[in-house]
Specification:
heterodimer, A: 294 residues, mainly alpha, ABC transporter involved in vitamin B12 uptake, BtuC, two-stranded antiparallel ribbon, 11 helices, B: 236 residues, alpha/beta, Rossmann fold, 2 domains, six-stranded mixed β-sheet, four-stranded antiparallel β-sheet, 10 helices, globular, binds adenosine-5'-diphosphate, binds magnesium ion
Chain lengths: 294, 236
């Protein structure tokens, strides 16, 4: 086996996986706070990436990046308050339909505003490849991995150490008990959606340089993210992150070393993993058996 | 002016009317017991105050109307409600539960000091603060719920059947601490109990609810001698 190829494939797998991990974490965040499986997560990410593209035409990368995250936060929170809140008490099927409607609406809106042309999207991680022990690694890939790890650490610290993070966890675990302690549960849920949209925006802005910016670009990513979230046990943030990296590396290695897995087969393979886990290990590889209280 | 005043409060769950006009008061610095059989409306009365059930009639706290305020606002106004089942967040640690008690407060320093201070009443909490609250026994969870309520520095503490499922010694200890807080810090308490014995020993006044109405009210010492109360609730 060619060690150099292997190392490169692992790193690009980790880079892909970082994107899946971000979006999977977004799915888990929303599932934990509002018990909604958000099929529109990928489209929301795509939309905010188009916003980033427009901002990038007016300013340099990092200011546009930060503004996009702020926009995504407000957008995600607004979606929760305006679209999800009214169906909070509705059946699972109704809520799923609402997120699918959101998917279609956001996609249509982007096509209408930005037209379906493919666009280049910049990466902030430019320059010569990084060379480690004689093996070349693309800067963008290293950058994605570092950015994702940093984001996850910040988010973890927020939930673990801040008063607001604690209140958000309480609101997700036992809303009625949290309310009696003065926690404004409605706002906490909206914040959860806001943070999820921020994660999605990061995933989108990291994906676009790899695939060109196009309104359908996040759809395969969403499938991988679902597979990652399910692999991690759908309610486990750590599981989603590990699941994301696992799927990214796994698919890349399969495509590299197993002849019949051509690029067209990568998505079906991810789907097979998804279905397989749901059938045989519904709690995920890392998750505990669903300890959900209703 | 009473600290808490309910005047002709009605409450319903959909078609079921649970309270048919309850009137009661709690004065500043008083421990008041709310007794009654299962289903009499004791829990609903507390929920009416904390805004977790729809009500009509007048509810005033420190002279201002409470009606319509959601539970979040009621908590911010200084009412700590330890609900039936205690409302402990089992997946969070003991310390995180306590920190949530202080959620409505500002001032990091003072909160830290109160977190320390509250453990004077519950010394064992100190060693177990990094444990998941779910690993505590029922009695410990009830103590934690009480400690958490205290950290919010409430003007009124409402306890819903704190003795439920606890060993008699633990119940004694719990009411001893409540009494201590009342005497030493002037804490006002409205406590719902089915254990009428201990509730009447620990309170200055009491109300007995029957199907959503106040059937008997008076000084706790009088109620202990009251024929009907004795037969129905004290069992002798
Ligand atoms: N969530 C609910 N939905 C419908 N009815 C309820 C609900 N909670 C309580 N009730 C009814 O309201 C009445 C009073 O209940 P509750 O206040 O819980 O009594 P207590 O606490 O004195 O045992 C009972 O008839 C009970 O069946
Ligand atoms: Mg009750």
């Amino acid at each position: 086996m060619d060690g150099q190829l292997f190392a490169q494939q692992v790193v690009s797998g980790l880079a892909n996986g970082a994107v899946y991990a971000s979006l999977a974490l977004a799915l888990v965040l929303i599932y934990r706070t509002t018990h909604v499986v958000n099929f529109a997560q990928g489209e929301m990410a795509m939309f905010t990436t188009f916003v980033a593209w427009s901002l990038n035409n007016r300013m340099s990368y990092w200011p546009a990046f930060v503004l996009t995250l702020a926009f995504a936060f407000v957008f995600g929170a607004a979606i929760e308050r305006v679209v999800i809140r009214p169906v909070e008490q509705a059946s699972h099927l109704t809520v799923i339909m609402v997120t699918i409607a959101l998917f279609v609406t956001v996609n249509g809106f982007v096509l209408w505003v930005w037209t379906p042309d493919l666009r280049d999207f910049p990466t902030p991680f430019t320059g010569e490849p990084v060379v480690v022990a004689g093996v070349f690694f693309a800067r963008h890939e290293i950058g994605i991995i570092a950015l994702t790890v940093a984001t996850v650490v910040v988010l973890w610290a927020f939930f673990r150490f801040t008063k607001l993070g604690l209140a958000m966890r309480a609101a997700a675990i036992r809303p009625e008990a949290a309310r009696l302690l003065g926690v404004r549960v409605g706002w906490m849920l909206a914040l959860g959606w806001g943070f999820a949209a921020v994660l999605g925006a990061i995933a989108g802005m990291m994906t676009a340089p790899l695939r060109l910016l196009d309104p359908n670009m996040m759809q395969p990513v969403l499938i991988y993210a679902f597979a990652a979230a399910v692999l991690g046990g759908i309610a486990s943030p750590a599981g989603a992150v590990i699941g994301g990296f696992t799927i990214g590396v796994g698919i890349n290695l399969l495509a590299t070393y197993v002849d019949f897995v051509t690029p067209e087969l990568e998505l079906p393979v991810a789907f097979a993993v998804l279905i397989g886990i749901l059938l045989f290990r519904p709690a995920g590889i890392f998750g505990r058996v669903a300890a959900r209280r209703v | 002016m009473p600290l808490l005043e309910l005047d002709g409060v009605q409450a319903r769950y959909g078609p079921i009317q649970a309270l048919h006009g309850v009137s009661l008061t709690v004065d500043e610095g008083e421990v008041v017991a709310l007794l009654g059989a299962n289903g009499a409306g004791k829990t609903t009365t507390l929920r009416a105050v904390s805004g977790t059930v729809a009500t009509s009639g007048r509810i005033a706290f420190a002279g201002r109307a409470l009606n319509g305020a959601g539970p979040e606002s009621v908590a911010r106004r200084g009412i700590a409600h330890v609900p039936e089942g205690r409302g402990i967040l089992g997946e969070l640690t003991v310390r995180e539960n306590l920190r949530l008690g202080a959620y409505v407060r500002r001032g990091r320093r003072e909160v830290e000091r109160d977190l320390e201070r509250v453990t004077e009443h519950f010394p064992w909490l100190r060693d177990r603060r990094d444990q998941d609250a779910a690993t505590l026994s029922g009695g410990e969870q009830q103590m934690l719920a009480l400690a958490r309520a205290l950290v919010s520095r409430p003007r009124l503490l409402m306890l819903d059947e704190p003795s439920l499922g606890l060993a008699p010694l633990v119940v004694q200890e719990l009411f001893r601490i409540v009494g201590e807080l009342n005497r030493e810090e002037g804490l006002s308490v409205l406590v719902v109990e089915q254990n009428a014995n201990i509730a009447l020993q620990s309170s200055s006044r009491a109300y007995v609810l029957e199907v959503g109405r106040v059937a008997v009210e008076g000084e706790s010492t009088e109620l202990r001698a009251h024929e009907g109360v004795r037969r129905s609730y004290l069992g002798y």
